[in-house]
Amino acid sequence: NAGVTQTPKFQVLKTGQSMTLQCAQDMNHNSMYWYRQDPGMGLRLIYYSASEGTTDKGEVPNGYNVSRLNKREFSLRLESAAPSQTSVYFCASSNRLRGNEKLFFGSGTQLSVL
Amino acid sequence: GQQLNQSPQSMFIQEGEDVSMNCTSSSIFNTWLWYKQDPGEGPVLLIALYKAGELTSNGRLTAQFGITRKDSFLNISASIPSDVGIYFCAGSVYSGGGADGLTFGKGTHLIIQP
Fold first, then answer.
1. Closest approach of chain A CAs to the CA of B46, in angstroms?
2. Which of B6, B41, B97 sits opposite A107 (nearest CB)?
3. Residue A99 has pLDDT above 80, yes or no
4. Per-residue pLDDT reduced to its tens digit, B72-104
5. B65, B51 Cβ separation under 8 angstroms
Protein backbone atom coordinates (compact mmCIF):
# COMPACT_ATOMS: atom_id res chain seq x y z
CA ASN A 1 0.00 0.00 0.00
CA ALA A 2 2.24 2.83 -1.25
CA GLY A 3 -0.41 5.59 -1.31
CA VAL A 4 1.34 8.90 -2.11
CA THR A 5 5.08 8.69 -2.75
CA GLN A 6 7.34 11.75 -2.80
CA THR A 7 10.99 12.03 -3.78
CA PRO A 8 13.46 13.13 -2.63
CA LYS A 9 13.02 13.03 1.15
CA PHE A 10 15.68 15.68 1.77
CA GLN A 11 17.34 18.26 -0.51
CA VAL A 12 19.79 21.11 -0.06
CA LEU A 13 20.07 23.72 -2.80
CA LYS A 14 22.07 26.85 -3.34
CA THR A 15 20.24 30.06 -4.17
CA GLY A 16 19.46 30.14 -7.89
CA GLN A 17 19.60 26.39 -8.44
CA SER A 18 16.62 24.56 -9.88
CA MET A 19 15.05 21.26 -8.96
CA THR A 20 11.91 19.19 -9.40
CA LEU A 21 10.04 17.42 -6.62
CA GLN A 22 8.34 14.25 -7.78
CA CYS A 23 5.02 12.85 -6.56
CA ALA A 24 3.07 9.76 -7.55
CA GLN A 25 -0.12 8.21 -6.19
CA ASP A 26 -1.49 4.72 -6.75
CA MET A 27 -5.03 5.25 -5.44
CA ASN A 28 -6.52 6.26 -8.82
CA HIS A 29 -7.34 9.71 -7.42
CA ASN A 30 -8.20 12.39 -9.93
CA SER A 31 -7.00 15.43 -7.93
CA MET A 32 -3.48 16.16 -6.70
CA TYR A 33 -2.01 19.00 -4.63
CA TRP A 34 1.26 20.56 -3.48
CA TYR A 35 1.46 22.18 -0.05
CA ARG A 36 4.25 23.79 1.88
CA GLN A 37 4.50 23.69 5.66
CA ASP A 38 6.35 26.35 7.61
CA PRO A 39 6.61 26.72 11.41
CA GLY A 40 3.61 28.57 12.79
CA MET A 41 1.98 28.82 9.35
CA GLY A 42 0.21 25.50 8.99
CA LEU A 43 -0.25 24.04 5.50
CA ARG A 44 -0.52 26.37 2.53
CA LEU A 45 -1.60 25.29 -0.94
CA ILE A 46 0.90 26.05 -3.71
CA TYR A 47 -0.75 24.51 -6.79
CA TYR A 48 -3.30 21.84 -7.48
CA SER A 49 -4.53 19.74 -10.34
CA ALA A 50 -8.24 19.01 -10.22
CA SER A 51 -7.94 16.41 -12.97
CA GLU A 52 -5.45 15.15 -15.50
CA GLY A 53 -4.59 17.95 -17.92
CA THR A 54 -5.48 20.85 -15.62
CA THR A 55 -3.50 22.84 -13.07
CA ASP A 56 -4.42 25.88 -10.98
CA LYS A 57 -2.73 28.24 -8.57
CA GLY A 58 -3.27 27.93 -4.87
CA GLU A 59 -2.57 30.38 -2.09
CA VAL A 60 1.23 30.72 -2.56
CA PRO A 61 2.18 29.88 -6.19
CA ASN A 62 4.93 32.44 -6.81
CA GLY A 63 8.31 30.90 -7.62
CA TYR A 64 6.86 27.48 -8.49
CA ASN A 65 5.62 25.61 -11.53
CA VAL A 66 3.82 22.28 -11.74
CA SER A 67 3.22 19.55 -14.28
CA ARG A 68 0.48 16.93 -14.17
CA LEU A 69 2.33 14.30 -16.17
CA ASN A 70 -0.50 11.75 -16.09
CA LYS A 71 -3.20 10.69 -13.67
CA ARG A 72 -0.63 9.26 -11.24
CA GLU A 73 2.11 11.89 -11.26
CA PHE A 74 2.27 15.56 -10.30
CA SER A 75 5.63 17.35 -10.10
CA LEU A 76 6.62 20.66 -8.53
CA ARG A 77 9.49 22.67 -10.00
CA LEU A 78 11.55 25.44 -8.48
CA GLU A 79 13.23 27.25 -11.39
CA SER A 80 15.48 29.51 -9.30
CA ALA A 81 15.45 28.56 -5.64
CA ALA A 82 15.40 31.27 -2.98
CA PRO A 83 16.01 31.01 0.78
CA SER A 84 12.31 31.89 1.34
CA GLN A 85 11.48 28.54 -0.28
CA THR A 86 13.15 26.63 2.55
CA SER A 87 10.24 24.54 3.82
CA VAL A 88 8.74 21.09 4.05
CA TYR A 89 6.76 20.23 0.92
CA PHE A 90 3.85 17.80 0.88
CA CYS A 91 2.11 16.24 -2.05
CA ALA A 92 -1.46 15.06 -1.53
CA SER A 93 -4.24 13.47 -3.55
CA SER A 94 -8.00 13.06 -3.32
CA ASN A 95 -11.03 11.90 -5.23
CA ARG A 96 -12.78 14.96 -6.55
CA LEU A 97 -16.31 14.05 -5.56
CA ARG A 98 -19.11 16.28 -4.34
CA GLY A 99 -18.60 16.87 -0.66
CA ASN A 100 -15.40 14.82 -0.52
CA GLU A 101 -12.35 16.78 0.52
CA LYS A 102 -10.41 13.97 2.19
CA LEU A 103 -6.73 14.41 1.43
CA PHE A 104 -4.10 11.70 1.51
CA PHE A 105 -0.58 13.04 2.05
CA GLY A 106 2.90 11.86 1.15
CA SER A 107 5.63 11.85 3.80
CA GLY A 108 7.16 15.14 2.70
CA THR A 109 10.34 16.65 1.23
CA GLN A 110 12.48 18.77 3.51
CA LEU A 111 14.10 21.44 1.34
CA SER A 112 16.81 23.85 2.47
CA VAL A 113 17.94 26.71 0.23
CA LEU A 114 21.23 28.27 1.26
CA GLY B 1 -10.08 33.80 2.20
CA GLN B 2 -11.38 32.05 5.28
CA GLN B 3 -9.45 32.32 8.54
CA LEU B 4 -9.16 29.44 10.99
CA ASN B 5 -8.05 29.92 14.58
CA GLN B 6 -6.85 26.71 16.20
CA SER B 7 -6.17 26.53 19.91
CA PRO B 8 -4.28 25.85 21.95
CA GLN B 9 -1.05 26.22 19.98
CA SER B 10 0.61 23.60 22.18
CA MET B 11 -0.34 21.36 25.07
CA PHE B 12 1.85 19.72 27.68
CA ILE B 13 -0.07 16.94 29.42
CA GLN B 14 0.48 13.85 31.53
CA GLU B 15 -0.14 10.39 30.13
CA GLY B 16 -3.71 9.33 30.87
CA GLU B 17 -5.16 12.84 30.78
CA ASP B 18 -7.96 13.87 28.45
CA VAL B 19 -7.20 16.44 25.75
CA SER B 20 -9.43 19.06 24.15
CA MET B 21 -8.65 21.34 21.24
CA ASN B 22 -10.78 23.44 18.94
CA CYS B 23 -10.95 25.48 15.78
CA THR B 24 -13.04 28.54 15.12
CA SER B 25 -13.74 30.28 11.86
CA SER B 26 -14.92 33.69 10.77
CA SER B 27 -16.95 31.96 8.05
CA ILE B 28 -19.45 29.13 7.90
CA PHE B 29 -17.98 25.81 6.81
CA ASN B 30 -19.75 22.80 5.32
CA THR B 31 -16.99 20.33 6.13
CA TRP B 32 -14.58 19.95 9.02
CA LEU B 33 -11.63 17.56 8.96
CA TRP B 34 -9.13 16.65 11.66
CA TYR B 35 -5.63 15.43 10.80
CA LYS B 36 -2.69 14.20 12.85
CA GLN B 37 0.94 14.61 11.81
CA ASP B 38 3.65 12.44 13.33
CA PRO B 39 7.24 13.76 13.27
CA GLY B 40 8.78 13.39 9.81
CA GLU B 41 5.53 12.26 8.22
CA GLY B 42 2.63 13.75 6.35
CA PRO B 43 -0.74 14.44 8.00
CA VAL B 44 -3.15 11.53 8.29
CA LEU B 45 -6.92 11.97 8.35
CA LEU B 46 -8.50 11.16 11.72
CA ILE B 47 -12.13 12.26 11.44
CA ALA B 48 -14.33 13.92 8.82
CA LEU B 49 -17.52 15.83 9.72
CA TYR B 50 -20.20 16.90 7.24
CA LYS B 51 -23.24 18.03 9.24
CA ALA B 52 -23.77 20.73 11.84
CA GLY B 53 -24.06 19.12 15.26
CA GLU B 54 -22.48 15.88 14.07
CA LEU B 55 -20.50 13.99 16.72
CA THR B 56 -18.14 11.31 15.41
CA SER B 57 -15.74 8.98 17.22
CA ASN B 58 -12.65 7.11 16.09
CA GLY B 59 -11.42 5.01 19.02
CA ARG B 60 -10.40 7.38 21.81
CA LEU B 61 -10.93 10.39 19.56
CA THR B 62 -14.21 12.28 19.34
CA ALA B 63 -14.86 15.29 17.13
CA GLN B 64 -17.87 17.55 16.82
CA PHE B 65 -19.12 19.87 14.09
CA GLY B 66 -20.37 22.97 15.89
CA ILE B 67 -24.00 23.98 15.64
CA THR B 68 -23.08 27.43 14.34
CA ARG B 69 -20.96 25.75 11.60
CA LYS B 70 -18.14 28.09 12.57
CA ASP B 71 -16.32 25.78 14.94
CA SER B 72 -15.22 22.22 15.59
CA PHE B 73 -13.79 20.37 18.57
CA LEU B 74 -11.50 17.37 18.97
CA ASN B 75 -11.24 15.43 22.20
CA ILE B 76 -8.78 12.65 23.02
CA SER B 77 -9.55 10.51 26.04
CA ALA B 78 -6.93 8.82 28.23
CA SER B 79 -3.91 10.01 26.25
CA ILE B 80 -1.05 7.60 25.51
CA PRO B 81 2.51 8.31 24.28
CA SER B 82 1.68 7.62 20.63
CA ASP B 83 -0.81 10.51 20.69
CA VAL B 84 2.16 12.90 20.51
CA GLY B 85 2.17 14.94 17.32
CA ILE B 86 0.60 17.94 15.64
CA TYR B 87 -3.16 18.00 15.17
CA PHE B 88 -4.61 20.09 12.36
CA CYS B 89 -8.16 21.11 11.73
CA ALA B 90 -9.27 21.93 8.21
CA GLY B 91 -12.50 23.48 7.02
CA SER B 92 -14.14 23.81 3.67
CA VAL B 93 -16.93 25.77 2.07
CA TYR B 94 -18.20 23.36 -0.56
CA SER B 95 -17.11 24.51 -3.98
CA GLY B 96 -17.85 21.51 -6.15
CA GLY B 97 -15.69 18.94 -4.52
CA GLY B 98 -11.94 18.60 -4.13
CA ALA B 99 -9.61 19.86 -1.46
CA ASP B 100 -8.52 23.14 -3.11
CA GLY B 101 -11.14 24.91 -1.01
CA LEU B 102 -9.72 23.58 2.27
CA THR B 103 -8.35 26.01 4.84
CA PHE B 104 -6.00 24.56 7.45
CA GLY B 105 -5.50 25.68 11.03
CA LYS B 106 -1.95 26.25 12.23
CA GLY B 107 -1.96 23.14 14.37
CA THR B 108 -1.96 22.08 18.02
CA HIS B 109 1.31 20.53 19.13
CA LEU B 110 0.56 17.81 21.70
CA ILE B 111 3.39 16.83 24.03
CA ILE B 112 2.97 14.12 26.65
CA GLN B 113 5.17 14.30 29.71
CA PRO B 114 6.19 11.03 31.36
1. 10
2. B41
3. no
4. 999 999 999 999 999 999 988 765 555 667 889
5. yes
